[in-house]
Major facilitator superfamily (MFS) profile domain-containing protein (Aegilops tauschii subsp. strangulata), 389 residues
Amino acid sequence: MLVFSNVASSYMIGRAFSAIFWGIVADRIGRKPVIVFSILSVVIFNTLFGLSTEYWMAIATRLVLGSLNGLLAPIKAYAIEVCQAEHHALGLSVVNTAWGFGLVIGPALGGYLAQPAEKYPQIFSKESVFGRFPYFLPCVAVSLLAAIVLISCIWMPETIHKHKSPEKDIQKVKALPSEQSYLDSPRKKSLLQNWPWMSTMVSYCFFGLHDTAYSEILSLWAVSDRKYGGLSFSSEDIGGVLAVAGASLLVYQLIIYHWVHKFLGPVISSRVASALSILIVSTYPFMTYLSGAKLSFALYSAAMMRSVVAITASTGISLLQNHAVRQDQRGTANGISTTAMSFFKAIAPIGAGYLFSWAQKHQDSTFFPGNQSICSVLVVQKDFLIIHT
């Protein structure tokens, strides 16, 4: 587990050290060049990751990929700038939905395409490249998808532009409501002095840590044996739960979230979603007392509601972040928040790895008596762990 958690964290560590740089570059030369370069790096280094034969090679390729992939900061700024003001919520929700779908489709591709020579011997021989590199096929599949997206970037317009706001427009901005003033105000102070942005960044980081911890623990808990306090699910069962949660997320983001944002606004909707997230997650331990149709209904419902409230909070916070700064600061602002959030997200897999190893050594410890041991929940099938990570 430590090996896989370190590989998972290496990408976040690389991104944490480079996100600010790519955000500044996006503000200086434009969004499109950074987006194109980031997607190209995914095509190259994700393929090389599938060809890794040593532990250090896997760590190095993921670390370099995280360092060169500066996509997240400029794409959020781009989503704001390419849409009209009334569609900003929809633009950012599409970005967050795409990320959520990646978290669902990624493990699914790994589960179905990993080790193809063993799963599909009639198609792939053990002497072929896919037999010698059992995890090369899912990496190539992702790289091909990224290559298609890279080609489509030819028709993507640049959005950043430089202009001076007349003094009369500045006076008009001061009289606007608070949310609209965030959108149009030509602030000239530094980001570290911009308290509205600083407060949203702190919320963004902590919620990112909470979201990552949830996604890391959910699968481990669900596939754990019931005698350890889990649900005894198979990898296919938890894959079905994630798929349904992803489908509900798409429907919510494209149809419902616009109305939630319109009536509640980003601040209230984020607060309500954060509070509901705590309540929903607190119901998971009690599901171990259910079975059959009741368990399926409870888990599927909770997973769908948790996905909905999580994306509501993250989208609302992202809107507040981008509205709190000028256009020529959005790349940098998103880069700083991405750096901070990446450090938080790097902690979760490493922490889960050490907790897993500690739990294996202390399963019978008197510190956690009984079958409901918190640490024992992390004792899972190694094969699933490889695919999931």
User: Anything to note?
Assistant: The domain at 2-156+194-388 is CATH 1.20.1250.20 (Growth Hormone; Chain: A;).
